[in-house]
Design goal:
heterodimer, A: about 170 residues, seven-stranded mixed sheet, 7 strands, globular, B: about 425 residues, Aconitase, domain 3, five-stranded parallel sheet, binds iron/sulfur cluster
Chain lengths: ~170, ~425
Amino acid sequence: MIFRGTAWRVGDHVDTDVIIPARYLVTIDPKALAAHCFEDLDPTLAGRIQPGDILVAGENFGQGSSREHAPIAIKGLGIACVIARSYARIFYRNAFNIGLPLLECADLHAAVESGDRLAVDNETGRIVNETRGTSFQAAPLPEFMRRLVDAGGIIEYTRRKVAGRR
Amino acid sequence: MGMTLTEKILAAHAGVGRVRPGELVECRVDFCFANDITAPLAIREFEKIGVATVFDRERVAMVPDHYAPNKDIASAEQCKIMRDFVRRHDLPYYWEIGRSGVAHVLLAEEGLVLPGEVFVGADSHTVNHGALGAFSTGVGSSDLAAVMATGELWLRVPETMRFVFHGRPAPWVTGKDLVLRIIGDIGVDGARYAAMEFAGEALRHLTMDERFSITNMAVEAGGKNGIMEPDDATLAWVRPRAKRPFAPVYADRDAEYARVVEYDTGRLEPVVSAPSSPGNVVPVREAAGVPVDQVFVGTCTNGRLEDLRVAARLLAGRAVHPRTRMLVIPATPAIYRQALAEGLIQTFLDAGAAVSTSTCGPCIGGHMGVLAASEVCVSTSSRNFVGRMGHRDSKVYLSGPAVAAASAVLGRLAHPDEVLGRTAAGVSA
Ligand code: SF4
């Protein structure tokens, strides 16, 4: 799948409290959560992100709490995929589990500004910064995640597993 | 080459002779839980899987702690989703308000997490229970739903980083100071995806309560789990509470560690994490003097009996500074009761502190002690991210209970020595 969208760049160690503050964790509705996404980082950001846009982050994206509400809020904004230098582990699992595509790329972050147009091939990991005419290669998906994605996420994987046991 | 403690527990639960870091294993889970924020999502996903009920009613707990007692109608609805599920599936491990407390403290206290076990919770601070010699890790709601259905979880075997504490902790240096020191040194992603094993003779000088503070914050360094080998103190703590038989696991002598970091605890001093990252660690003496609007003693990190005892020692016969408000929240009703019996609650009230029923409360800035713009809080919790305890322009310093209580008395960030002389120290004696 090729995603084409506007890049939004955030820094290193963006935590789940900034992605969706705990005071809004009284709902599991993606749209309601999306309205407050990144509020404490930049209160205007959620309003500027358009469906199909691409989030570019630095190191350790999603550190902190286990709240699945964090990737749900990002997906609720319409973000097509996230490309970070690295991810915190619970966020990483959660994003795959709810179907938010993640890519890991060491070099893109320093070579992109918010507003750049990106084209991302989710399968090959090829990323093109169309605004600057540069291209990058994301790390291949770890086998564990590939297995989950192929199965359609942890819930579908588990549904098949228990059905097979009957 | 032998296996580390974490590797041995995972191998046993994957039903294989040995595992190596990086390998994927499907592990049997001994116990799992969700809270009032993560359970509603987990329940929704669980219901898609197509099983009639949970894998074992005796091994799934649900705990109302974050927004319980309910802070508003929306949170009341979330708690009710959880409560209704518990009733529908007749789950024995649920505690209603009045009996409930902060999950990580409550579940250990109830003897539901045991040495050698694999414990999984839909909350990142599930790493807490590693102090008991269990493999204990946090997951999201969908992963938890899968565990609730099958009693199994896919895991990547982590590399183990070993942190060895030598000597005897210097005065006022608590378990919290040790773990903050590590996070300050290796950074908030210094142990990303890794098991953090804590060892060394200095641990013998720490109470179990202090040890929990250490494993509790492994996640703040990015760790997958924090863990300690059980010793006599661990077993003495666990045995009277254990709800199931258990077998402690110990590392092989020739286990391989990705990295070993050693500390002479006699040379350490009390520290705080300055705003707005747990990794922003500085000695208290360098941060001292910052005016403080609120002090909070509580949470899964430092809301245990030993923490209340330390705070009460500093507050006894003194008053909370008029410029400052102090909140004390015992993590569970059992701790509240014991604090009452020991006169600690009286000490807090006499000093002018507010004491509340067990809840996560101000830790997540949702209710009961939310901060206004530009306010400063000294908190015994584990996270001081932007907006964590309230307004995005509020600031949180993380500390142990002694620094928190000293700061409450003086109305500014303070070293405990400023309140009680050095001779009176020896917190871990
Ligand atoms: S006390 Fe704070 S850190 Fe601990 S479980 Fe509650 S909200 Fe999370």
